[in-house]
């Protein structure tokens, strides 16, 4: 069924009006999924057009796309996409920023603590002294990442754990907004053995002090990069300070496709959204901007890698991880992060006259607007 945009809008207005607890009937769901597929086909066609304009576009075994020097492609991403996945290490439940794109927006003050002196790895709580036991039993991963929420809020607690995993030969990277970083703690973290530091530069709106911290970090760490959800704000703020940022000597920029959940979706009310493989819900602008960003990087020959960390990349990531773990054929944890599909959020794209479906067909018998579709 290749539903028309007009029919899709009429049906979605109806779906959006239903009580929150009311589920769609199978026939109605078929209509909804047809509309989502129509939107996604149009979005994918635009992505293909933009990618065709990027000189020297490269692929990592068809799992992701990038431009730039192969040697600077982040090792943490190789581990994620080709290795044994990326094990998340969680410690800090606080943050010193409140970004509109954050998955915990509006709930930053209610994030559960991991526990005094404890670390969460693979969903299990460990003390630092338990790590030898963990490493003696489990096959060590090709890489780990320190997440949740802003590690530099208590970075002194990380040094011992980083040193332990470094001695075990495991590649480690850490995410930070860079606000609380300084020469002293950056140097200490590097000496502990962290391999790769990733700055969420969009969290600080490309603040000068964070850019300076990136320059300092470059003197100590083997790899330094940026990883930020691609938004119009970051795109604009980056190019306003492009020369200064590139002069830090960073190795890569991971342009993450922004995906939404129940915490942050209201911050993007009115934006055109799409439903990627019935999993992540994202603003259409996000990957479009990433591909435009990559085109500029390639044409101007920036001395770094710019990586398209898209929803497709994250889909490949989960397939790789489950396969490495011995999962059944096709197993993945990729899926929708909403307990109920927010149909009203898709009304803007269906009402946007400039957004067109690639191909439309009349509704099949029994699915017309005058029919009762169950």
List descriptors:
15% strand; TIM Barrel; alpha/beta; 374 residues; 13 strands; eleven-stranded mixed sheet
Strand content: 15-25%
The low-pLDDT segments are none
CATH architecture type of the largest domain: Alpha-Beta Barrel
Structural class: alpha/beta
Radius of gyration: 22 Å
Q: What is the H level of CATH, i.e. the homologous superfamily of the largest domain?
A: Aldolase class I
How many helices? The count is 12
Average pLDDT, rounded to a whole number, is 96
The strand count comes to: 13
CATH topology of the largest domain: TIM Barrel
Query: What string, H for helix and E for strand, traces the elements in order?
Result: HHEEHEEEHEHEHEHEHHEEEHEHH
Q: Could you describe the largest sheet, including whether it forms a barrel?
A: 11 strands, mixed
Helix content: 25-40%
End-to-end Cα distance? 16 Å
Main sheet strand line-up:
1-2-13-10-9-8-7-6-3-4-5
Can you tell me the overall shape?
A: globular
